Amino acid sequence: MTTNTYAEELPTSHAVTGQSRTGRLTRGLFFYTVLILGAVIICLPLIWMVVSSLKAPNRLFTIPIEWIPYDLRFQNYTDALNSAPFGRYFVNSLFVSTTTTLLNLFFCSLTGYAFAKYNFPGKNIFFLLILATLMIPFHVVVVPLFTLMRDLKWLNSYTALIVPGAMSAFGIFLMRQFISTLPDELFEAARIDGAGELGTYFRIVLPLSTGPLAALAVFVFLDNWNSLLWPLVTTTNDQMRTLAVGLTQFQTQYGTKYHLMMAASTLVAVPMIIVFFLLQRHFIRGVALSGIKG
Amino acid sequence: MIKMTIYRKRSLWGFLFALPAILFFILFAYYPMISAARLSLYDWNLVSPPQFVGLDNYTYIFQDGRFQKALVNTFKFVGTYAVPMWIVALSMALLFTQDFRGRGLFRTLYFVPIILSETVISIVWRLLFHPQGAVNAIISPFTGGQTIPWLTDGNYAFIALVIVAIWRVFGYYMIIFISGLQNIPQEYYDAARVDGGNRIQVFRFVTMPLLLPTTVFVVIISLLNGFQAFVYQYLITRGGPNDSTNVLGYLIYQEAFTNLNMGRAAAISLVLFAILVTLTFIQLYLIRRREV
Fold first, then answer.
1. Is position B48 within any domain?
2. Which chain A residue lies closest to B111 (C-alpha atoms)?
3. Phi then psi for B238, rounded to 5 degrees?
4. Domain span including residue A157
5. Contact flag A42-B167 (C-beta cutoff 8 Å)
6. Mean pLDDT of chain A
7. Which chain A residue is nearest to residue B224, measuring alpha carbons?
8. Are residues A119 and A57 in the same domain?
9. What are B10-41's pLDDT values in tens digits?
10. Total domain count for chain B?
11. Do B31 and A144 touch (CB under 8 A)?
12. Structure confidence at residue B4 (pLDDT)
C-alpha cells in the first residue's frame, strides 16, 4: 500500500525510465533552465518598457543596455499625459468594454438558453446560421459595416463602438453547450413553482452559469479592450478614441519621443497586468474552457 | 388540447429569446457579408456614386504586384509563425504537466503577453528592434557587435514580426494544450507503461491521438488568426520595407481607408474569405476522416 502511494507521487517519466538521483538532478536543471529562459524572454521587453519610460530621451538606445536608469524621470509620465487625453481614452475603453461585456453576457446566455432548452420551428437552421458566422473574418465585413455606421450616422459614437460587438457566436455556442447539460427537471420544478419563462432564465439559468459566464466575460472584455481595427475605423474625433487607437495616434504624432511613448505604453499596460494577476484563475480557466470546446 | 397550447406558448418564448440574436447576426454578419460581395463589383471612393465595373476589381488585384506580394506574404507569415509556435506551445505544455516548484508562477508569467494589447506590444517591440535597440544590444556578443537592420531589411523585418507574433501567443496555446493533456485519463498512461512502452512510444501512441481534438482546435484557431494578421504589420513595419511584410489584412485596410478604393478592398477581403473557408473545410474533412 505504502509503496503504491509512493510510486504515484513520482514524476511520470521517472517511473518509466527509473533514473538515478543525479539523472533527476540534471533533468531538474534542464527544466529550470528552459523555464527561466522562457520567463526572461517574456519579461525583458516589458521590463525594458518600464525602465525606458523613466529615462532621458538620449539614454534609451545604448549598448550595453542601462537596465537601471541614471536618474528617474517621472516627468515623462506627466509629459505623456499632457500631450494626449489619455484619461478620456481610458474612460472610453472602460465604458465600451464593460458595456459590450454585459450585453454579451445577457444576450449570449439568453440565446444559448433558447437553443438549449426550447423547441421552435427552424431552431437548428438558425443555430447553424449563427455558428457559421464564426467563419466570416472581420476584415471582410469591416468595409460594409463602416458604410452602415456612416449611413446610420453612428460614426464617432459609443453606439458604433458597442452595438456591432454586442453578441458573439462563440459566446452563444459556449452558453448553449453549458445550458444543455443542466437537468430539465430543474426547469420543470421552477415552472411548477410558478416561475414564468423569463423567471426561469433569471432564477435558474443565470445563477447556475456563473462559471462559463465568467470565462465569456474575460474573453469579451479583453477582446474589446485590445481591439484596434474597429475603433480605428469608426472614430476620428479625439474625444471618442479608445486607448488602443489613442496610443496609435500618439505613436504617429510623437514618433521620435520614444521615452514618452514608453511612458504612455506603461500606463496602458500596467493596469491590465495588475487586473490579470488579481483575476488570473478566471483568465486561465476561461482559456482552458475555450480549448475543451474543440 | 391544453397541453398543446402550453407547448405552443413555450416554443413561442424560445423563439422570442433567440430572435434578438437572429436579427443581430442578419444585420451585422450576413448583410455586411452580402454587401461586401456586391461592393467588390463596384468602383467606389465613398464620395462619388458607386460605379458598376463587373469583375474589374478582381482582374485588377490579381495583376497587381502589391496584392500578389501580400498574398504570398500572408501564407509565408502564417507558415513561419504557426508551425514553430505549435512546437513551442506543445513542448512547454508537456513540461508543465510535470510536477515542479513554481509551476503556477511560470504558467502565469507566460500568459502575460496575451493580456496586453497588440498595440502596446507593437509599439514596444518596434523600439526593441531599433538598430541600437535592446535586441541588438543583447545579441551583440553573438553577432560580434554587428548591427542587424531588423526593420529596414525585408527578410529581417519578416522574421521580426514572426518573433513578436510567437512571443505574444504561445502562452495562450500552451494553456490550451495543458488542459488538453490534463484531460487524458491517467489509466491510459499506466496501461502503456505496463505494456513496456518507452517515453517516445507513449507520446506517439497515447498522448498524440488523445490530444488530437485539442490540437485540431489550436491549429484551426491559430491559422485563422494568422491569416487575419493586421496590427503588427500596421504598427511595427507599416507593411514595409517596400511591402516585404505586407499581408492581406493590412492591404485591405490600406485600400479601404488610405486609398479609398472600397471596391478593391472588398475584392481582396473576399479572396481572404475564400482562403479561410477552404482552409476550414479542409480541416473539417481531415478530422472526419480521422474519426471514422
1. no
2. A284
3. 55, 35
4. 86-253
5. yes
6. 84
7. A137
8. no
9. 888 999 999 999 999 999 999 999 999 999 99
10. 2
11. yes
12. 60
Name the residue facing A42 among B17, B113, B253 (closest C-beta): B113
Which residue range(s) make up the domain with B138?
Answer: 56-291
A285 or A92, higher pLDDT: A92
Q: Chain B partners of A262 at a C-beta cutoff of 8 Å?
A: 124, 127
Residue B49, domain member (yes or no): no
Interval A141-157: pLDDT, tens: 999 999 999 989 999 99
Verify that B204 and B106 share a domain, yes or no. yes
CB B182 within 8 A of CB B214: no
Q: Are residues A134 and A203 in the same domain?
A: yes
Inside any domain, residue B11: yes
CA distance A193 to A248: 55
b (16+ CB within 10 A) / e for B12-26: ebbbebbebbbebbe
**A193 in any annotated domain:** yes
Lowest mean pLDDT among A117-126, B92-101, B253-262: B92-101
Separation of alpha carbons B3 and B20, rounded Å: 27
Does one domain contain both B32 and B86? no
8 A C-beta contact, residue B122 and residue B236: yes
**Same domain flag for A75 and A90:** no
Asked if the Cβ–Cβ distance from B15 to A38 is below 8 Å, we say no
Q: Give the ipTM of the model, two decimals please.
A: 0.84
Q: Are residues B224 and B188 in the same domain?
A: yes
Residue of A nearest to B12 (CA): A120
Residue B122 confidence class, pLDDT cut points 50, 70, 90: very high
Chain A interface test: which of B116, B178, B238 (most A C-beta within 10 Å)? B116
Contacts of B136 in chain A (CB under 8 A): 63
Whether B115 is in a domain gets the answer yes
d(Cα A113, Cα A171) in Å, to the nearest integer?
12
User: Is the Cβ of B224 closer than 8 Å to some Cβ of chain A?
Assistant: yes
Say if A265 falls within a structural domain.
Answer: no
Q: Coil, strand, or helix at residue A74?
A: coil
User: Per residue in B260-291, pLDDT tens?
Assistant: 999 999 999 999 999 998 988 888 787 777 65
CA distance A89 to A77: 16
Does pLDDT of B134 surpass 90?
Answer: no
Residue type, A145: L
Task: Identify the domain boundary among A253, A273, A289.
Answer: A253
Contact A144 B266 (CB under 8 A): yes
